[in-house]
Amino acid sequence: MVEPAVIGTKNVIVAAAEAKVRRVVFTSSIGAVYMDPNRSPDDVVDESCWSDLEFCKNTKNWYCYGKAVAEKAAWEEAVARGVDLVVVNPVLVLGPLLQSTVNASIIHILKYLNGSAKTYANSVQAYVHVRDVALAHILLYETPSASGRYLCAESVLHRGEVVEILAKFFPEYPIPTKCSDEKNPRKKPYKFSNQKLKDLGLEFTPVKQCLYDTVKSLQEKGHLPIPTQQQEESVKIQS
Question: Exposed, middle or buried by CB within 10 Å (0-12, 13-18, 19+), for 114?
Fold first, then answer.
């Protein structure tokens, strides 16, 4: 997971430099940003934050380790080669699927709808709409003043909030109502800042719309049965 990410990243930066590309927009991840056990719950997660590499290694969190190391390699190579690099750090991406198959991000939601998850975890997750991630890339390509990293996130929700939203819009599915951890206090969402992207004019899609669009796409792609009584028209959800 780590080696291809680092080598592949360096190859692209080198190729961009040789081709005299004016700007490279690199898709990193929240995984390179927030995995830090020493961060206080009151601290705001923003573009200055980096995941703790030793902590990632010790906990065998190779996804976050790989994302952080790959992004650091991108910055180092860009400086060395004189490449104008800008980075997007998306959180978990939801919304309509391009492909016919289900990816890891969407399984995160699908399991609460198809009966495979009987309970929800006592944990939190940040979400963003796929169209907002795409638009963020375009904004960073087209805005000369854009620089550094850009955290791409709309909301942080507890899993309990996720299943409540899903149950409200799609009560016909076997959505879990119990937490798998009822002994410990409910985990609190972490604070984050998406102000840098907002300053460029990005208006984030509400997380409820993200969840709704995800389920509609799963129905359209045949991954979920479509209820007979369900209305055909799309719904625009107000924040």
Answer: middle
Q: How confident is the model at residue 229 (pLDDT cuts 50, 70, 90)?
A: low
Query: Is 187 annotated in the active site?
Result: no
Per-residue model confidence as pLDDT tens digits over 39-72: 998 999 999 999 999 999 999 999 999 999 999 9
On the question of pLDDT at 232 being above 60, the answer is no
Q: Which residues contact 71 (CB under 8 A, 6 or more apart)?
A: 9, 26, 28, 29, 32, 87
CA dist list (Å): 123 to 158, 184, 200, 229: 6, 11, 31, 33
Choose, from 67, 196, 208, 216, the residue flagged as catalytic. Answer: 67
pTM: 0.92
88, 137 Cβ separation under 8 angstroms: yes
